Amino acid sequence: MSNQTGAVWRKSSRSNGAGGQCVEVADNLPGRVLVRDTKNRDGGTLTFAPDAWRAFVGFAKQG
């Protein structure tokens, strides 16, 4: 598991309050972006390099 000390988590802007498919992102740590499932916060965390995360988000925005 990656070191999450100091991570500031925020919900995806696509999340709604209805308990749908939600993720949380912590992008305040140097050199990495952490992603986890809002409904299962202890289930694991994905770690991305910032450039890889920006590429993924850009691709996702394209539809």
How would you sum up this structure in a few lines?
It is built from 1 helix and 4 strands, in the order ββββα.
Largest sheet: 4 strands, antiparallel
Percent strand = 15-25%
- Distance between the first and last residues' Cα: 31 Å
Uncertain runs are none
List SSEs in N-to-C order. Answer: EEEEH
Domain DUF397: 7-61
Pfam families: DUF397 (PF04149)
Region (Disordered): 1-22
Describe this structure in words.
It is a single chain. With 63 residues, the chain is of the alpha+beta class. It has one helix spanning 50-61, and strands at 10-11, 23-26, 33-37, 46-48. Strands 1-2-3-4 form a four-stranded antiparallel β-sheet. The chain is globular, with a radius of gyration of 12 Å.
Describe this protein with a few key phrases.
DUF397; 22% strand; alpha+beta
Walk me through the topology.
Elements: E1 10-11, E2 23-26, E3 33-37, E4 46-48, H1 50-61
Antiparallel strand pairs: 1-2, 2-3, 3-4
